[in-house]
Structures are given as structure tokens and as C-alpha cells.
Specification:
The protein is an alpha+beta fold. It has 7 helices and 15 strands. The protein folds into 3 domains: 102 residues, Rossmann fold (3-Layer(aba) Sandwich); 117 residues, ATP-grasp fold, B domain (D-amino Acid Aminotransferase, Chain A, domain 1); 65 residues, ATP-grasp fold, A domain (Dna Ligase, domain 1, 2-Layer Sandwich). Helix 1 crosses helix 7 and helix 3 packs across helix 4.
């Protein structure tokens, strides 16, 4: 594996790009340098496939020829509001690369399951640590709440989230139906579907498990800032690396079977008594905790990608 390239729709503003570089990409670049891997990000539109000029299709990315033997693509779907216009382009390029027999550590089918929070809850319904019961509905320009969804019977207060966002963005608390409909009217401006989940109460914290090769490599305990619902660092939450809670070990084995990939993140909420499965992120961001401690998750992740890529090529050669 010479190259590890992300398919990433970079429509960020100057300020967004600077922040993403500081929080994410600079750490990834440094880890890739330590591993001797060429790391880069490319827009889906930069992928060109020539199926006419020779006996086999040739693939170019920004003019550089690439093959399944030398390049691994991370094909995780990005669906923030400024990237919605790229959604179809991302999905189709992911599918094309899959058909061209590139090794994709985030398979197209699983990225769809991991991106939509309702799909995640349904796919993992029998997890030893159950998902939080979820209600999904659409919003639109004609009606803020589409599909004649009945919101009156929800167990208020509820946590409201865009179905396909991450990083704690857009996570709000709705105290009653009127409040929820107000939130939906704002989401309708971008036709953004929403999910609602029961609020677990003040003091709820979050455990992010970084799972590498089916095992919990590291755990980040995230505590929300007072008055916040989401515990993400981007929302002011505090972070600390901790040991794996024993009660989550069975869930790790289950999730490893449901997501047979080299790397993913599983987020669990803890309300002071019980754990609840919250989300899965197949391209979950890793950075050192607030104390600057780094457990080497990125290096372990990239090494796992390299092992699985090698195994993929060996299996492909057997059936060639």
C-alpha cells in the first residue's frame, strides 16, 4: 500500500479548512509520514476511469495513474449541508471503485448504514448494548414535517439530530412538540431528515471506542460542557483516554462481526446506570485527548489497512 487516499468533498470555507486541518488532517498526515504512506484527500470528481483505451480500465486521480495494488481509498460518505451536492457523486464513485476491485476499508454498503442514524439502529437492533430507540422523519420545503409524521406521542424531552451529520453538529434538545416542530422548520431549509431519541438526562457522558481489527484499541471518555447535549470536543466537551468499560466487551465482539472492517468507532452513552449504543462511525476521527496523550490509534489503523489490503490482493490473485 503506497497510497492511502480519502475521497473527500472539500467545500469548506477558509476557516473550516483551517480548523479541520488542526483537529484532524494534520494528525493524519503526521501519522502517515511515520508509517511511510502517501496520504492525500481528493474530490470524487478527480477520479477518471478510461474503459476505452485498452484491454482493462485505467484509473487516474488528478492525472496520477493508480491501481488496486498500490492505492487504497477511504470511501466514507460526507453529508454535511455544504456537501449535500456531492452526495450522489460520492456514492457513485465509491461504487465504481468497488467494481474496479480496489480495496475499500469502508465498503459502500456499510458507509450508508453508518451514515444514517436510523439505519444504524435497525442494523444493530440485537446488540448486547441496545441502540437508543429512534424515531426518524423527513423535513421539506412544502411541509416542515413530511410524511404526516405524528410527533405528539414522543417521550419528551427528546434529543434531535440530523440523520447524517457528525461531530455533534445540529444536536439539540426539544422539550415538547412545539419545540421539535420549530427545529424541523429550520431543518426544512435544507430538506434535512431528522431523528429523535429519548433524552437520557443531565450528566450523561459518552465513551468512544476505537476498534482496530475487531478489538477495542483505545477508549475516549467524553464529558459534555455544562448545558450542552453533545459531548464532542467541537462542542466544548472534555476528553480523556480511559480503559475499556467491562460491560462493553460483549458489544465489541458483536460489532466486530457486524462491521468486519479494519477500523471503526462505536459511541456509547452512559446515563450513570446503563450504557446505550449511540452511533457508529466507520471513519471516526481520532486525535489525542486534552492532556495530549496519544495511544497510536492512527498508526494502528493504517497498519491494519495495510494488512487487510495485502490479504485482499492475495485473495484476488487466487481467483484471477
Amino acid at each position: 500500500m503506497r497510497r492511502l487516499w480519502w475521497i473527500f468533498p472539500d467545500r469548506s470555507s477558509i476557516r473550516q479548512r483551517q480548523r479541520m486541518n488542526e483537529l484532524v488532517w494534520d494528525h493524519y498526515q503526521a501519522a502517515a509520514d511515520r508509517c511511510g504512506i502517501d496520504f492525500a484527500r481528493h474530490d470524487a470528481g478527480s477520479v477518471v476511469v478510461d474503459g476505452i483505451g485498452g484491454p482493462r480500465p485505467e484509473v487516474f486521480v488528478d492525472g496520477v495513474p493508480v491501481t488496486p495494488a498500490d492505492t487504497v481509498f477511504v470511501t466514507s460518505l460526507w453529508t454535511f449541508p455544504h456537501q449535500v451536492g456531492d452526495t450522489f457523486k460520492q456514492v457513485t464513485v465509491f461504487t465504481v471503485l468497488d467494481q474496479l476491485r480496489f480495496y475499500l476499508p469502508v465498503p459502500p454498503r456499510l458507509t450508508l448504514i453508518g451514515t444514517d442514524k436510523m439505519a444504524t439502529a435497525l442494523y444493530l437492533a440485537d446488540c448486547p448494548i441496545p441502540p437508543i430507540p429512534t424515531f426518524r422523519f423527513g423535513t421539506g420545503r412544502d411541509d416542515p414535517v413530511t410524511g404526516a409524521a405524528s410527533l405528539a406521542a414522543l417521550p419528551y424531552p427528546v434529543v434531535v439530530k440530523p440523520t447524517g451529520w457528525g461531530g455533534g453538529l445540529g444536536v439539540l434538545l426539544a422539550e415538547d412538540e412545539r419545540h421539535l416542530r420549530t427545529i424541523a422548520s429550520l431543518a426544512a431549509g435544507s430538506d434535512c431528515p431528522l431523528v429523535c431519541q429519548r433524552y437520557l438526562g443531565d450528566g450523561t457522558t459518552d465513551y468512544r471506542l476505537y476498534i482496530v481489527d475487531g478489538r477495542a484499541h483505545s477508549v475516549l471518555h467524553r464529558v459534555p460542557r455544562p448545558g450542552e447535549v453533545a459531548s464532542n470536543a467541537s462542542r466544548g466537551g472534555s476528553t480523556e483516554l480511559v480503559d475499556v468499560p467491562a460491560r462493553l466487551l460483549d458489544a465489541v465482539g458483536y460489532l466486530a462481526e457486524k462491521f468486519p472492517v479494519p477500523y471503526f468507532c462505536a459511541d456509547f452513552l452512559f446515563d450513570g446506570r446503563d450504557f446505550h449504543l449511540s452511533e457508529i462511525e466507520l471513519d471516526g476521527v481520532y486525535t489525542p485527548d486534552q492532556k495530549g496523550r496519544d495511544t497510536g490509534v492512527l498508526e494502528a489503523r493504517f497498519a491494519a489497512y495495510e494488512r487487510h489490503h495485502r490479504q485482499f490482493l492475495e485473495q484476488s490473485a487466487q481467483f484471477a
